[in-house]
Amino acid sequence: MILAKVVGTVVCSSRNDSMNGARYLLVEKSNQHGERKGDYLVALDVLGAGHDELVMVTEGSPSRETPLTTNKPVDALIVGIVDKIDENEQVTYMK
Amino acid sequence: MILAKVVGTVVCSSRNDSMNGARYLLVEKSNQHGERKGDYLVALDVLGAGHDELVMVTEGSPSRETPLTTNKPVDALIVGIVDKIDENEQVTYMK
Amino acid sequence: MILAKVVGTVVCSSRNDSMNGARYLLVEKSNQHGERKGDYLVALDVLGAGHDELVMVTEGSPSRETPLTTNKPVDALIVGIVDKIDENEQVTYMK
Amino acid sequence: MILAKVVGTVVCSSRNDSMNGARYLLVEKSNQHGERKGDYLVALDVLGAGHDELVMVTEGSPSRETPLTTNKPVDALIVGIVDKIDENEQVTYMK
Amino acid sequence: MILAKVVGTVVCSSRNDSMNGARYLLVEKSNQHGERKGDYLVALDVLGAGHDELVMVTEGSPSRETPLTTNKPVDALIVGIVDKIDENEQVTYMK
């Protein structure tokens, strides 16, 4: 999984994924300090992640492994909102 | 998912994917402002995306998760035509 | 899918993929003008693509989605021989 | 599979993966000498890997292929704790 | 598939993949001349590839498509030992 910050939203009018209510968020890859890295992707959110929150994103086929995303053409899913990260026993990020 | 602009079409004479009517589009990866990034791929379109439209593309195995692409050798699918993107509460792209 | 030119063949003596007759081709990634980019991979060919032809290659898990490749350990498959590409309404490649 | 060193942990409060007890570790990609490469990812651990241990990580869809991760949205899994690596008949890493 | 040279072995003491006898090899990505490129990964070997042999490696989910690797968390598998490669009708590698 990768770490990313929620920075915006993407609205689509024509979708063929049959997921009414699906919310696509613009996320920016981040490091373990929660610092943005300038690399963006669009991830599906079913957790209600808020603006500027650090999240954990699963990419590829495993994105479909939730009740809401089964058999959907989704390749990036927010699977967790990060509370705390530590590296070498030092806290690097705290929500 | 990634953002990309529709820039052209790819026509193939011999296909082993058994998808008569499938339309392969040349798309160029774009940022959240709709600006092209010089990196291209071929994506299947079943939504009728038009030239120069900004679209959302799903890559890899999840591309097969639509009625038309089930069990097809497709690794990039246009899953949405983008209407609007905002970043940090500023609109960065409007169709 | 990516665009690539057929530039050679790869012959293996011991294979565990149980695909007698499978033909592995050395392909070089190419742009929409059919120009080679110096980046190579090995793709399975079941279409009879010829030397120097521009082809469309599907990567990853969807490569298994043809009658011949079902349940085979193949991660790159030639799914089309390109006839024509246009970009911004200009033909960039013609077979 | 890739080699990586366990360098920290990631704690999430809201998870949609229904894996109570799952432990997400921050790992840093490493070479065959066990030297860190400055590139990080989050991997699920079900083996009890300890801090600073060199591990083998499986990425993508195969991460789901254990009893604990079946049908879970996991795209990186620790599948082994490395004891020893040799290259050209020289030991490059020993636990 | 990619080309790689067998350069070493990786031994793990704790594995959750339930493949007794599985042999993990350290392989280095190589070009069509069999020249190493300095980029390494760990691949599962069920063919008995020898040291310094050039092999063909399948990555990702299709690695599971052999009797021995079905439902295993393996993302790189040696699927062939290369005998010969030609590019533009010139032999570039011969075992």
Largest interface: A-B, 29 and 33 residues
| Helical percentage of chain A | under 10%
Mean pLDDT of chain A: 90
Q: Main sheet of chain A, how many strands, which sense, barrel?
A: 6 strands, antiparallel
Distance between the termini of chain A: 18 Å
Here the CATH topology of chain A equals OB fold (Dihydrolipoamide Acetyltransferase, E2P)
What is the alpha-carbon Rg of chain A in Å? 14 Å
Task: Give the CATH H-level superfamily of chain A.
Answer: EutN/Ccml
**Unreliable stretches covering 5 or more consecutive residues of chain A:** none
Indicate the CATH class of chain A: Mainly Beta
Per CATH, which architecture of chain A? Answer: Beta Barrel
Shape of chain A: globular
Give an overview in words.
- 5 copies of one chain form a homopentamer.
- The two termini of chain A are 18 Å apart.
- The first copy, chain A, has strands at 2-15, 23-30, 36-45, 54-59, 76-87, 90-94.
- The mean pLDDT of chain A is 90.
- Chain A is globular.
- The first copy, chain A, has 95 residues and is mostly beta strands.
- In chain A, 0% of the residues lie in helices and 58% in strands.
- In chain A, β1 and β2 form a beta hairpin.
- The first copy, chain A, has a 6-stranded antiparallel β-sheet, with no helix packed on it.
- Chain A has one domain (2-94): OB fold (Dihydrolipoamide Acetyltransferase, E2P).
- Chain A has no helices and 6 strands.
- Chains in contact: A-B, A-D, B-C, C-E, D-E.
- Chains D and E meet through β4 and β5 of D and β1 and β3 of E.
